[in-house]
Amino acid sequence: MADITLDRLAKVYPGGVRALHDLDLTVRDGEFFALLGPSGCGKSTLLRTVAGLEAASGGTVRIGARDVTELQPGDRDIAMVFQDYALFPHMTVEENIGYPLKIKKVGRAERAAKARRTAEELGLGHLSERRPGQLSGGQQQRAALARAMACHPQVFLFDEPLSNLDARMRLEARTFLKKLQRELGVTTVFVTHDQAEALAMADRLAVMEGGELRQVGTPTEVFRRPASTFVASFIGSTPMNLLPGRVTGDGTVRVAGGELPVPDEAAPLAEAGEEVVYGIRPEYLSWSDSAADGAVSGTVSVVENLGSAQLVTLEPEDGSSVQVVVPEEHEPAPGTRGWAAPRADRALLYRDGDLLAARAEAGTAAAPLS
Amino acid sequence: MRTPANPAAALLRGVGVYLLVALTLAFFALPMLWLASAPFDKHPGITVSLPDFTLANFERLWNNPNAVDSLASSLILAGGSAVLVVGLSALAAYALSRVHIRGRDGLLYALLLLSSIVTGTAAMVPIFLLAAELDLVDSYLGVVLVLTGGLLPAAIFILKDFMDTTPRSYEESARVFGASPLRVMKDIVVPVVRPGLATVGVWTVAQVWGNFLIPFLLLRSPDKSPAAVVMYTFYTEGGQPDLALISTFSLLYSLPVVLMFLFVSRRYGFRFHGGIKA
Q1: In terms of domains, do B40 and B123 share one?
Q2: B181 and B213 part of one domain
Q3: pLDDT band (50, 70, 90) for residue A201
Q4: Measured between alpha carbons, how far is A285 from A307 in angstroms, rounded to an integer?
Q5: Which contacts of B35-41 are long-range, i.e. CB under 8 A and separated by 24 or more positions?
Q6: Is residue B236 in a domain?
Q7: Cβ contact A53–B173 (<8 Å)
Q8: Do B21 and B144 belong to one domain?
Q9: Which residues pair with A312 in a beta bridge?
Q10: Which residues on A lie below 8 Å from B176 (Cβ)?
Q11: DSSP letters of A169-208?
Q12: Which of A106, A146, A148, B273 can bridge A118 by disulfide, Cβ–Cβ 3.0-4.6 Å?
């Protein structure tokens, strides 16, 4: 077991593309940690640099007490599961699982026993003589996990572990992975572009953009208090409403034709007259059919059914649009008028893209923007 | 389906088509039939006929001083070239597939184009002079090197396709588990591209087995000549081609290659890539 410490880690590809900008990050011992971001943000490069498949251009990678920056991947005591699982097609499941042990010169009998035991643990016992081509996607994933587990590494690295599964399998595998990680207690870093996956599985996550960390925190912190408008728009299955507004003198913000109270934590910092962005998630707006104070009003233009609720798009007079999650007991019809009032403790103010907050909660501070 | 107006015309057309097919088939099958019948005929001619059965031709061939030795020579040349071509092209194709250098594809196509000159007639004189300078005339090594040089570009071209279709994650996965580059090559890359290696090996053997010009030029002593060259010496005292010997030897000469094709195809299966066929 070990933690992972990155100190000013940089990666510049030949040709001058900077994939990672002097990153500082600590993944704690036993943690399930997600690297989240849009494609090209450097999350895979970061994972591959920790694995040693890419050489760092600057900074250090430490696993536990060891500086592994200059070590070969095989000497880092890690195991990696690739997006395509990378099971060797010419070996059976058992041979695949035993391969890391073969490299470590474990004897044939012990290797086979160990491989079979690991396969049993993951419910692959009856498949050990099959070849990867004869397995389903979910079984292949388990075989790849078993192979990673068999050599008892200090750290697991998963590259997009769920992206090759179909939608239903993905939910199952998500629960399975989280449970497995908890049972094994091995420090695990995984890469994903799917925010729902990161929120659901990770103990903590880092949101990346353009080779930099935008925010590091628990899923709850990142979901409730995104440190920047980029994180706010990236996290959440329905994107956060980000409404341009202006702070008035009497503790309110003029937004979308309405006046909303300035959130408490932003009050000491917001100056009258300045331009801000008011952020509120559709889930934290409460719906009303009649006029209400501290609410924005508009005409219902679209109603999308989410199953147990509806996503209503409201169009205020000033031409903006606000999305509201409306519980099933209300059924607003398109064309009618509606009011949406924010939940005071969930509203956020952004100035120049950064969260305006008097107190920074531990772990939610954004990496400095450069 | 269109129903013809006249059944008689349809019948006639059917007969015509089959006749054409039969004639075409016969045209291509005749040489094979000759190869199957002539060696067992007391007096083989250049036409196909039911043989006047005998095994005497095989006995005569056995007693010919060069015939049996030449098959051994052919084996040495083909085997040596196959080992060199497969080994070198595998390493080159792997490197070319994994490392990106400028002008890589141009280089490959240029080599492919020029390779036909190396083993062809165009470069005969310089190659002979070069071999003479290097003291490689009349040695198996010289022939093997020249043939290998000529076959390598096409082999690299075929194998690079196989390497390209092998996911890089296989190798990276093995590396993370601590495998050295040679170990990765041995445990992962070679087994995965084995059909490609088999294809190139068989193709090399077939090419060398049938090559006349290079061994004819570079091997001076008759006891080193491979089968393709020795066949050229089977004449009667009267200067006529000795059809009995030629046909018998042809049969023995083609058998190893046919057997090898069957064996390798059953063992590995053939896959041809990049529009190249043997």
Answers
A1: no
A2: yes
A3: very high
A4: 18
A5: B35/B247, B35/B250, B35/B251, B35/B254, B36/B251, B38/B243, B38/B244, B38/B247, B38/B248, B39/B244, B39/B247, B39/B248, B39/B250, B39/B251, B41/B244, B41/B247
A6: yes
A7: no
A8: no
A9: A303, A324
A10: 51-53, 73-74, 78-80
A11: HHHHHHHHHHHHHHHH--EEEEEES-HHHHHHH-SEEEEE
A12: A146
Residue type, B251: L
By the CB < 8 Å criterion, does B176 face chain A? yes
Domain ranges of chain A: 4-229, 231-355
Among all chains, which residue has been given the structure tokens 């010169």? Answer: A105
Residues of A in contact with B187 (CB under 8 A): 88, 99
Residue B92 Cα, gap to closest chain A Cα (Å): 22
Pairs of residues, one from chain A and one from chain B, whose beta carbons lie less than 8 Å apart: 57
Place of tokens 């996503």: A311
Whether the pLDDT of residue A366 is over 90: the answer is no
Indicate the residue of B167, B178, B192 with minimum beta-carbon distance to A103: B178
Same domain, B134 and B262: yes
Q: Which residues of chain B have pLDDT under 50?
A: 1, 272-278
Contact indicator for B205, B260 with CB cutoff of 8 Å: yes
Same domain membership, residue B185 and residue B105: yes
Q: Min CA distance, A135 vs chain B (Å)?
A: 17
Backbone φ/ψ region at B103: left (φ over 0), alpha (ψ -120 to 50), beta: left
Identity at B1, one-letter amino acid code: M
Residue in B with minimal Cα distance to A96: B174
Instruction: Tell whether the model's pLDDT for residue A264 goes beyond 90.
Output: no
**What tens digit of pLDDT does each residue of A170-190 get?**
888 899 999 999 999 999 999
For A231-355, the fitting CATH number among 2.40.50.140, 1.10.260.40, 2.60.120.560, 1.10.630.10 is 2.40.50.140
pLDDT at A257: 82
**Which domain range does residue B89 map to?**
64-268
Distance CA B187, CA B193 (A): 11
Alpha-carbon Rg for chain A in angstroms: 24
Task: Give percent helix, percent strand, percent coil of chain A, each to the nearest 5.
Answer: 30, 30, 40
Task: Write the pLDDT tens digit of every residue in A108-136.
Answer: 899 999 999 999 888 888 998 899 989 98
Neighbours of B185 (CB within 10 A): 16
Number of domains in chain B: 2
- For residue A1, what pLDDT is reported? 66
Each residue's pLDDT tens digit, A58-85: 999 999 989 999 999 999 999 999 999 9
Amino acid occupying residue B148: T
Contact residues, chain A, for B167 at CB < 8 Å: 84, 86
What is the DSSP-derived secondary structure letter of residue B120?
Answer: S
